[in-house]
Amino acid sequence: MESIQKPIHSLVSGIADVVIHGSDNVVVNKIIIDSRRIMPGSLFVALRGTQVDGHQFMDTATDLGAVAILCEELPKTLREGVSYIQVIDSAEAMGYVAASFYDKPSKKLTLVGVTGTNGKTSVATFLFQLFRALGYRCGLLSTVQNQIEDEVIPSTHTTPDAVALNQLLALMLEKGCSHVFMEVSSHSVAQHRITGLKFAGGIFTNITHDHLDFHKTFDNYIKAKKGFFDQLPKSAFALVNIDDRRGSVMVQNTKARIETYSLQTVATYHGKILSDTLTGMHMEINNQEVWFRVIGRFNAYNLLSVYGAALALGEMPEEVLTALSNLNSPPGRFEQIHSADNIVGIVDYAHTPDALENVLQTIAHLRHGNEQVITIVGCGGNRDAEKRPKMAEIACNLSTRVILTSDNPRYEDPQDILDQMLKGVPPLKYKNTSVIPDRHEAIFKAVAEANPEDIILIAGKGHETYQDIRGVKHDFDDRQVLREAFLNFHSQKE
Ligand SMILES: CC(=O)N[C@H]1[C@@H](OP(=O)(O)OP(=O)(O)OC[C@H]2O[C@@H](n3ccc(=O)[nH]c3=O)[C@H](O)[C@@H]2O)O[C@H](CO)[C@@H](O)[C@@H]1O[C@H](C)C(=O)N[C@@H](C)C(=O)N[C@H](CCC(=O)O)C(=O)O
Ligand SMILES: Nc1ncnc2c1ncn2[C@@H]1O[C@H](COP(=O)(O)OP(=O)(O)OP(=O)(O)O)[C@@H](O)[C@H]1O
Ligand SMILES: N[C@H](CCC[C@H](N)C(=O)O)C(=O)O
Ligand SMILES: [Mg+2]
């Protein structure tokens, strides 16, 4: 991408109550939110974070060459030659500034956002694959990876910050994309990462327990997700799962055209599961029968929302269903790995109580009879602690055996996390539950004890290829460890 030079007066449209101290003709060549990365000629945005207040780095930023500062409060002394853009909310203003800096790429793209506790990556990835199959050039912004057609750009967040986001959208536009599908996390709405973007549509999957460490209350969490629909324009569609009891709340105040999907009741897009097995799912969608490679009731919802979004964007039902029936699940979402003697390994990113319950219920539904279901699960450190006992309880109630282990402990003591999980184990399930903090050992133990036809679920890390311990990301891939364990004990089927 060519280097950009823009005067600050061209960046402030859309921002209410802005005061520029100094020249509004100062030209900036970058927008930077971290003083440790300042480049000469850049605009530094002082953000109030969860750990520190970025305002304390304003002088450091100008020392290092920043020529403009976007802030809520001015520093004690204003520097000669530096312009200060004072606003009520830096994070919100940054959304508009970033969009203007990159020439508002979202306005020239068909941009669809997906929000909800679970299913965002799945739905965004299915949409990306579907629209490519329909012949469009597409971009994807997701937890697993960002993508421009076949080019993979590693992702650091589910939804990048406003600067990274607009930069990626501009690059997608430059590379000829017409459609972009992105995840909209609740953090990103609350922190204004998506402010200033123009969406062609928004999808709501569901809302259940997660991220209360950040939002504090479930009400705030709902409000954050609803904020996405509140800001959709009239020209957009708002597609909601009305089987989720918060579905109607999400679109209460939206200006967008409301459409619904459901497996249970009358809706714009109605689906019914006719059969669901380990090899595929047969559904009826708006009276048309279709066979999918992807399985599980939760994926029936995901596919239905993708179908609805495609129709809302003007695509033809039959072409959409034909293309959808050929899609595979994204990496680490119900990814199956079988041993030569037919042990079924499933690696899944279920890291919330609801996702875990859905996946285990899907497994229960797919069982033939006496197979054991061995679940290996842990919970991430420095994240919502309330979900820990809940996830352990769900695992115990829906599995024959459970091995509680570590996820990404981050800066917490793994044993503390496991002790909190143990509080959720029902007394009658103690004898079928073990604790093995080392995830590698836990997977090997499960495989050593499994018999042909048994199902091993490894939950929580899905596509992740690392384990974060005290800020160090050690190589770790559940799928690879499972394959090794199969080769060690049972050999592996290709
Ligand atoms: C909780 C959260 O959202 N944190 C994000 C937040 O960091 P923070 O609030 O801790 O920032 P801070 O350290 O307090 O610093 C405040 C400001 O001062 C700046 N600073 C700081 C130090 C310094 O020396 N100089 C300086 O300028 C920082 O760059 C920042 O702009 O702002 C940072 C910059 O945008 C993000 O990278 C960071 O994401 C962290 C890494 C993170 O783990 N976020 C997760 C929780 C997250 O966002 N997850 C969601 C949803 C996940 C999902 O459900 O899929 C996601 O969208 O990924
Ligand atoms: N529609 C759904 N409803 C409930 N659970 C789902 C749904 N889709 C997927 N899941 C479960 O949730 C897990 C995570 O799915 P996915 O990665 O698509 O969600 P996400 O919303 O992107 O998660 P994150 O918040 O981490 O980005 C899956 O591995 C599966 O277990
Ligand atoms: N996007 C989620 C991912 C959680 C994945 C799980 N493996 C963990 O590390 O807790 C989060 O940041 O809360
Ligand atoms: Mg995701």
UniProtKB/TrEMBL annotation:
Cofactor names: Mg(2+)
Pfam families reported for this sequence: Mur_ligase, Mur_ligase_C, Mur_ligase_M
Residues noted as binding meso-2,6-diaminopimelate in the record, renumbered to the chain: 383, 407-410, 460, 464
Example of a GO biological process term: cell wall organization
Segments carrying motif Meso-diaminopimelate recognition motif: 407-410
SUPFAM superfamilies: MurD-like peptide ligases, catalytic domain, MurD-like peptide ligases, peptide-binding domain, MurE/MurF N-terminal domain
Protein family according to the UniProt entry: Belongs to the MurCDEF family. MurE subfamily.
UniProt-recorded name of the protein: UDP-N-acetylmuramoyl-L-alanyl-D-glutamate--2,6-diaminopimelate ligase
Gene name linked to the record: murE
